Structures are given as C-alpha cells and as structure tokens.
Amino acid sequence: MNARSEDLDRSGPSSPQPATSSAEAGTGSRPGAPPTPDVAAAVFGSRVSLAERYVALLAATGISHGLIGPREAPRLWDRHVLNCAVVHPLFATGARVADLGSGAGLPGIPLAIVRPDLRLTLVEPLQRRTTWLTAAVEELGLANVVVHRGRAESLWGAPRFGHVTARAVARIGELARIGLPLLEAGGSLHALKGTSAPTELTEDADQLRALNASRWSVASFGAGVVTPETLVVTVDVGSAVTPGRRVGGSARPAPRGRRSPTSSGRRRP
Fold it and tell me: Distance (Å, rounded) from C-alpha 257 to C-alpha 57?
C-alpha cells in the first residue's frame, strides 16, 4: 500500500433493500460473490468479515438493482472494494469525508470499513441508489456513515469537510468545481482515476488555478494488493473556496432558494 507521488505543478423493486440477513451475507460465499482473496485480511484486518458482507451485498442486490454490472461480480474485490480501500492512508485521523456520486458506496463504504475513525457522508442524487445505500449501511452496522440524497452543490454552505473523494464521477476540473467548496481550509480532494489521470490533471490545471487550489499531484496506491494499482489525483486548498467561483471565464453561482439538504442513514457519536 505504498504510494508513489508525482507533483504536476500546481454503476428491481421500487424500494431496493439488501435481501440477505447479516448471517447469510457474512459468509462471503453467496452465489455470485467471489472468494475472499488472502490480501483482504492484510488490508481490512479484524474487519475483513464486514468487508465480506459488503461484497456479498454488492454481488446480490447491488447487481440485481443495477448499481453494479453483472460482469463485475468476479472482480468485486480487486477492481472495486480493495481498489478503494488501499487509498485510506490519504485521510487524516477522525476526519469528516464526503464521497460524491457514491453509487454503490464506492469508495465510501470500503473506507468506512477499513477506517472506522472516519466519518463518511455518502452523497448521491438518485433515490433508488440512496435507498439501497441506507439499507446497506444499516445491514452492515456502519455507525460512522450517513447517506445524503442530493447533488454535491446541495451541501454548499453546510459544515465543511476535511476531505472530499469520488470515483469515476467527472473530470478533475468539474469535480474540483463542485467539490472544493465543500472543503475546510487546508482540506483535500482525492479523485480515484484511471491511467489517464496525469494527462487529465495537466489539461485541467488552468481550472484548478482559477479555483484557487494550492497544489495538486497524482499518486498510486496498493502495490502488491491490486493490479493495476489505484491512481489518485489529490487537489489541496489552502483557504476555503467560495462556491460559484469563476472558472474558465464564466461564473456558476451557488444554488439559492433550495430547501435544506435531507439526509438519511444513521450516525452515532
């Protein structure tokens, strides 16, 4: 799980519910769920059984409700769950983290499992996905996770986060536009990306400058755990970013007149 860093200048029923009980999902052997690789225990430690239950949920209702493609079942561990979990060293102890466009809970749920000290908010605009996410969080007993139905912009003006993360949501420039205003001063955006990450980061550098980002870089995680390794683009801010900051010659104002954001799920102190 060593990181290599390079500075670059600045996916059924109308109310989906996980259909398995804790005992059924906890075995990791439900039809369709891949076997648990040996490296999973090295990553998740004593919480590997919880990760197995999550993989079983993805392989069952996650697929049947369209959150994960059926062809992904054999590679749920390496391509999805471990791929996300290995980036956990990026997050400060006890930090508040927003997972934008969470979908099936990636990367937020693997991070919440491997790092119970983190406080995760899974941000997702689609009701069928948030219904599934809320049921999954309850099924897994993740007291450190809240599910928020809405777009990232609906949280502009709410208490800020130490970290924002996302996986396969948008180009880094657009992700920064909606994500950086959620960060507190000194916070970081971490975007899990594919092999085009360095090129995309270079191409979107002007947008990052316009948003007053202080530094950005790309790093790889998961050596010896996942192949290929997980690439993460990190964008840091020195001071808090104002929502609707001018980017590329046009201003996108912060949303007005919206009702207060609604959250579902449970958070316990």
Answer: 38
User: Does the CA dihedral 146-148-153-156 come out positive or negative?
Assistant: negative
Find residue 113's DSSP bridge partners: none
Please provide the size of the chain in residues.
269
Tell me which H or E stretch contains 38. helix 38-44
**3-state secondary structure at position 25:** helix
Which residues have C-beta within 8 Å of that of residue 204, sequence separation ≥ 6?
171, 172, 173, 176
Residue whose pair of structure tokens reads 């992904």 in the numeric block: 72
Tell me whether strands 230-237 and 183-193 are parallel, antiparallel or unpaired: antiparallel
- pLDDT, block means (10 residues), the chain with 269 residues: 40 38 37 90 98 98 94 96 98 98 98 98 97 98 98 95 95 96 98 94 95 96 96 97 63 40 36
Strand arrangement of the beta sheet that strand 145-149 belongs to = 4-7, 213-221, 230-237, 183-193, 161-167, 96-100, 119-124, 145-149, 262-265
β-strand pairing of 183-193 with 4-7: unpaired
Is the pTM higher than 0.90? The answer reads no
Q: Which two tokens stand for residue 97?
A: 């983290």
- Cis geometry, peptide bond prior to residue 107 (ω within 30 degrees of 0): yes
Side-chain half-sphere CA neighbours of 181 within 13 A: 22
| Ramachandran area for residue 265 (φ above 0: left; ψ -120 to 50: alpha; else beta) | left
How is residue 260 written in tokens? 């207060």
| Spatial contact of 263 and 243, defined as CB atoms under 8 Å apart | no
Q: What topology does CATH give the domain 4-244? A: Rossmann fold (3.40.50)
